[in-house]
Amino acid sequence: MVAARAALSAGSFVLRIVAAPDDSPVGSLRTFASIRADLVERPRESMLKIRPEQYEVLAKAQLERFHADAERHLRQYWPAVAAEKGDAGVRAMVEQASRRCDELGIDDEFDVLRYLNLTCALGTDFEVTQPWAAALLCDKERAPRDRMDEATRRALGATERNA
pTM higher than 0.85, yes or no? Predict the structure, then answer.
């Protein structure tokens, strides 16, 4: 995930989250499930070993931040949906979209937000109601960004035809 690659400064150290152990217990976004942190001292490099429990804390904090951002996104750009769902419903929508994207191998925050937009525009069951959606989103032969680009293009076409 792009945000998971950000550098965090702490005095003379920079914490870079660059990769992750495959056995991490984090279950939402796949990128969060594989966070590995390296601590680099300036000007010379040194390594700091991060325990699995620490990976979990870093991943959980990043996921919570993303979910809060996604909830704000939904309230800002889909106010009618947010009002209808209420706070708990908005939170549930974001968590469901996040889990579904993880299943689909979509792990970029931008693409997860686009998936959330599709659920708002076409309904939470759009993968069932739109004949093209399930086959397209489950096509692991295509890159996740390409799948979301095509899904967004088709959804725009579908909403324009219905307008």
Answer: no
